[in-house]
């Protein structure tokens, strides 16, 4: 009986869960569609309001002509300038006045424009009506503001261009603002879609009730030239385009018979080319496609909207999943509770047994924790020993490098000394045999002896310098004592000990460390850091390469800090290697000379002993740059414990 009730409760719970999930999905879909609808209405309304604002301004210019139909170039220029269009109406390309010129007056009109000095004292001697054609009436762009950037439109005869002529004749006969179809502006070399809105201008006085009266009184047109992409950037928020696709096509004049289907020739605007998102690859969401018709200058614009998945129109599956899982669990628990009522006592005993077992497990965990502490301490001591070995190995490498470097000057000195000894014996023999020497022989002997002494002096001086540099570096690294030192001296001393290795690797070193950077710190630790960085560059950066370059430069950062940058043009590192570079025992040269402790030691020295910061930047094939920011006076106190897994600084 209890089992049947449990099954029934489980089935009812599952049904309620399914109903709740369906309600949540429906609500989410409705909310997303409501958001999409609001965005569609906003874009369409903002577009209409923006265009109406421009058209109102166009009617304002037309009103100026209603008071006086003969406006000269200077007054037109001044009127347009006072509108401050570039600040108040940035979406336009140009504002123009198109004059109707009969064929019989074309020559006089051309001459008058060429001689117009109202704005430019030189006039417009290059003015030309284009394209050249013979017809009863010409519609010529006489004024265009601004003229700069719109020179190609100056003098354009619109009567020779069928799309423009059709709009002009429609505006002339209707007396209303008329927009052209999609055109490519002659003054725009980018090829972006554009259109022109024009309002007819009539002579003041004559009646304008009929088409014939309007044709007889026509003077010309005032026009605004638009680039649609520029216009829509004012209307649509760029962030919205990440979620909604907007396409605008020219639908033609209402009632026209030559309306073209949507294509490249009718496309006015397509937001897909304005953002780089998933829109070009994915389909719109269900129920997120809509079309709006907008009348623009007696032409019908078809505005198509499509919504895409994302945060704005999201339909998160997480609430449905949570409700489903929670409903299933609750239903199962209720069913299990009803089924297992008779087993409560057995469960109690089982629970007591489980608690006892848990206590035993806890005791085992505590013992394991104690054992792990001992192992961790042992590993820590082993790491300390390995780090000491690494430092001694580095010092041994310095010894080997200096020994190799000393071979040449000492060998030269020995060879020169032997040659000088032979020359002295020969000189003594000749002196004893002849009983006297010529002056030329004595001068030659003295010149050879002086030259041999110079060679021995130069070689022994070089050897002494090497020994001094090595002695200072070795003493600093071995003692770890704090003292005052000059940064450039430590850098040059350290490089001197690696001269042989760098020369064998064909590595060029450039040092840009100004004199006068005095530190009160630990020169041995700083030398150890530079030694490890040089060793890494030779072992990893220039492995398999014929040569390379290392740059060491330093600059003061404020009063108490110095930025020291070590960079090479070697093989670089991948992101995975860069992430683990400071980990102890991590190396890409396991068994080939790399212990995996070099950069861990560098990190511990820089942050613990020198109390500075370190940042590593690298890309495969682009070399590696290590930037140290060090205080000129190291804080007092012992260095902290080593940090085994430091996070890389960005």
TrEMBL record:
Major enzyme class: transferase
A molecular-function term among this protein's GO annotations: phosphorelay sensor kinase activity
Catalytic activity from the UniProt record: ATP + protein L-histidine = ADP + protein N-phospho-L-histidine
Boundaries of every Histidine kinase domain copy: 401-634
Record-annotated membrane-spanning stretches: 318-339
Stretches assigned to coiled coil: 348-385
Signal peptide segment: 1-23
CHASE domain mapped to chain residues: 67-304
EC number(s) reported in the record: 2.7.13.3
Subcellular compartments: Membrane
Recorded GO CC terms: membrane
Keywords carried by this UniProt record: Coiled coil, Membrane, Phosphoprotein, Signal, Transmembrane, Transmembrane helix
PANTHER family reported in the protein's UniProt record: SENSOR HISTIDINE KINASE (PTHR43065), TWO-COMPONENT SENSOR PPRA (PTHR43065:SF42)
Protein name: histidine kinase
């Amino acid at each position: 009986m209890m089992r049947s009730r449990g099954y029934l409760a489980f089935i009812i719970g599952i049904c309620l869960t399914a109903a709740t999930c369906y309600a949540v999905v429906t609500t989410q879909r409705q909310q997303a569609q409501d958001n999409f609808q609001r965005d569609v209405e906003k874009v369409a309304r903002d577009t209409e309001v923006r265009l109406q604002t421009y058209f109102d301004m166009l009617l304002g210019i037309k009103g100026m002509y209603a008071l006086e139909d003969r406006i000269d170039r200077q007054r037109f220029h001044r009127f347009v300038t006072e509108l401050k269009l570039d600040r108040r109406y940035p979406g336009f390309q140009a504002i123009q006045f198109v004059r109707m010129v009969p064929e019989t007056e074309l020559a006089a009109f051309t001459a008058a424009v060429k001689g117009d000095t109202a704005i430019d004292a030189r006039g417009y001697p290059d003015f030309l009506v284009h394209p050249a054609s013979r017809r009863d009436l010409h519609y010529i762009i006489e004024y265009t503001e601004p003229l700069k950037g719109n020179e190609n439109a100056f003098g354009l005869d619109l009567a020779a261009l069928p799309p423009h002529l059709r709009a002009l004749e429609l505006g002339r006969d209707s007396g209303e603002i008329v927009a052209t179809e999609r055109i490519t502006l002659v003054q725009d070399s980018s090829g972006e879609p554009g259109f022109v809105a024009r309002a007819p201008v009539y002579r003041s006085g004559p009646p304008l009730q009929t088409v014939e009266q309007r044709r007889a009184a026509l003077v010309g047109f005032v026009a605004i030239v638009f680039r649609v992409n520029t216009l829509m950037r004012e209307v649509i928020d760029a962030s919205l385009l990440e979620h909604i696709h907007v396409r605008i096509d020219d639908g033609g004049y209402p009632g026209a018979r030559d309306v073209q289907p949507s294509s490249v020739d009718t496309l006015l605007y397509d937001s897909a080319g304005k953002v780089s998102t998933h829109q070009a690859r994915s389909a719109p969401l269900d129920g997120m496609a809509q079309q709006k018709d907008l009348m623009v200058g007696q032409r019908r614009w078809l505005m198509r909207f499509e919504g895409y998945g994302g945060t704005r129109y999201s339909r998160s599956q997480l609430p449905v999943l949570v409700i489903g899982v929670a409903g299933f669990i609750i239903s199962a628990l209720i069913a299990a509770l009803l089924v297992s009522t008779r087993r409560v006592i057995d469960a109690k005993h089982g629970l007591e047994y489980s608690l006892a077992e848990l206590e035993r497990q806890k005791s085992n965990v505590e013992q394991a924790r104690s054992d792990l502490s001992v192992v961790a301490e042992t590993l820590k001591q082993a790491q300390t020993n390995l780090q000491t070995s690494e430092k001694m190995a580095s010092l041994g490498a310095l010894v080997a490098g200096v020994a190799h470097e000393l071979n040449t000057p000492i060998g030269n000195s020995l060879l020169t000394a032997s040659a000088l000894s032979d020359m002295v014996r020969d000189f003594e023999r000749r002196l004893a045999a002849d009983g006297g020497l010529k002056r030329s022989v004595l001068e030659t002997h003295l010149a050879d002896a002086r030259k041999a002494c110079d060679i021995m002096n130069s070689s022994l001086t070089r050897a002494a310098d090497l020994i001094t540099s090595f002695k200072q570096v070795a003493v600093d690294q071995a003692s770890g004592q704090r003292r005052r030192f000059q940064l450039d001296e430590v850098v040059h001393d350290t490089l001197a000990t690696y001269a042989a290795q760098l020369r064998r690797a064909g590595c060029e070193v450039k040092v840009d460390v100004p004199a006068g950077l005095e530190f009160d710190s630990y020169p041995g630790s700083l030398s150890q850091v530079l030694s490890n960085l040089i060793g890494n560059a030779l072992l990893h950066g220039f492995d398999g390469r014929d040569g390379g370059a290392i740059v060491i430069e330093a600059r003061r950062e404020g009063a108490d800090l110095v930025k020291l940058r070590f960079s090479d043009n070697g093989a670089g590192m991948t992101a995975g290697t860069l992430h683990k570079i400071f980990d102890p025992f991590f190396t890409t040269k396991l068994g080939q000379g790399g212990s995996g402790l070099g950069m861990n030691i560098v990190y511990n020295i820089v942050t613990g002993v020198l109390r500075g910061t370190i940042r590593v930047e690298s890309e495969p094939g682009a070399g590696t740059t290590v930037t140290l920011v060090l205080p000129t006076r190291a804080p007092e106190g012992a260095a902290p414990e080593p940090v085994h897994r430091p996070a890389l600084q960005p």
